Amino acid sequence: MYLALREMRFAKTRYTLIMTIMLLVSFLVLFVTGLANGLAYANAASVENMSANYFVLQQDSNSRFTRSVMSHDQLTAARSVVGDTNATPLRIQMTTVTQGSTTLKTDVTLFAIDMDSWLAPAVVEGSGVSNDSVGHVIVDQKLKDSGFTIGSPLRDQVTGMTWTISGFVKDESYSHTPVVFMNKQDWQQLKQQSVINGDSADQPPINTIAVKANSNQALQLQKELGDVEVITKGTAVSAIPGYKEEQGSLLMMIAFLFVISAFVLAVFFYVITIQKTSQFGILKAIGTNTGYLARSVFGQVLVLSIGSQLISLLLIKILSMALPESLPFKLDTSTIIFTCSLLVAMSLAGSLLSVIKVARTDALDAIGRAAA
User: Fold this and answer.
1) CB 3.0-4.6 Å disulfide test: which of 56, 188, 277, 278 passes with 209?
2) Is the dihedral of CA 79, 82, 84, 89 positive or negative?
3) Do 69 and 81 touch, CB atoms closer than 8 A?
4) What is the similarity comment for this entry (predicted)?
């Protein structure tokens, strides 16, 4: 490291430029990764935030909640396997609402849940809704951007039903739409005419059963309930319309960024190594071994890579605070550690060409070229 640090101190301009390039590359990778995670979270936040680890759906529903219709007999059977408190019904419908009599339309997803169950989200503003209240809902705070406030009327375009907003919840979205949580009473009115699978208007159909279960109980659910799909939370998230396609495109972009960054860094360090061939030859001629020179090259790459990562993280932190709420951006600690570690590893891999060049440098030839 002594030689590496001395050289970097001597050629400050050269290594500052290299570090700037590495900084821009790592900033771009982290920014696109944050956007990809933000979009993924905005698409499936409500499902990811649920305490359930399995969902029971109708067979052949392709793991999609909105395609599934479950009966109350199946809910009772599921509760007999995992316990009454560990299985709760979830009803979902996507619709368009307006604020009272105004014509401004907003797409939302309706979640009908048991307000006393663990599916009920925490209210961050206003008050919650009980199972006995009628005409009141709690909504994701993104609806504030559309002008909704506590007490605002929320009118369903299809049925003409109107609910009043009692409170706001945070990070509750489904398929990029804010979620509106209502109790069974209001869902019954919405689905008053629905009679499916023998369910009456008093017992409106269920889309899915959210359960807390271990793997053995999940297998037992599949066996006991027969024609159903028992899927994990990860599968449920991936089945949200557009989720896989959106994430696939962004992950492909991130993968190419990693490959391009490794290639660019490899070329930079290789060119610098070629420029220093005669110096390496002289060092070898006075007794410096190849291992020491290789460690010096790796040390320079490591210092530049870690330094650029730290600065880019600082810039990303500042940028994330300045981004508007409407632009989804999310970088958790595990993602940051994984991305930065991968960038450092690829930088070191990219410097292997330089190390090979150093190992093959012949002292006499290098000295001869320098003398010429």
Assistant:
1) 56
2) negative
3) no
4) Belongs to the ABC-4 integral membrane protein family. HrtB subfamily.
